[in-house]
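ok, trying the design again with the full structure, not the truncated one.
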């Protein structure tokens, strides 16, 4: 996983990993969630990848938009 830049300083996301049709987000609690095209929609996943690479707004987007539309909680 790649360390999340957290430019705002208040994000709960600490790391992420992305692939062709998914993004995995690790939170400060240690929990890791896998979001896929199938679970959250391709447009949402692509936007999440952009936000992750910028290092801002990913946690907010997860909380307001995709919430529990994850494919799997891995930890």
């Amino acid at each position: 996983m790649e360390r999340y830049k957290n430019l705002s300083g208040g994000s709960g996301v600490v790391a992420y990993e992305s692939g062709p049709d998914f993004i995995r987000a690790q939170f400060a609690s240690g929990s890791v969630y896998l979001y896929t095209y199938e679970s959250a929609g391709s447009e949402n996943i692509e936007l999440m990848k952009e936000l992750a690479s910028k290092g801002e707004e990913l946690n907010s987007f997860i909380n307001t938009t995709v919430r529990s539309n994850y494919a799997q909680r891995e930890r």
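Keeping the full-length input from now on. The chain has a mean pLDDT of 96.
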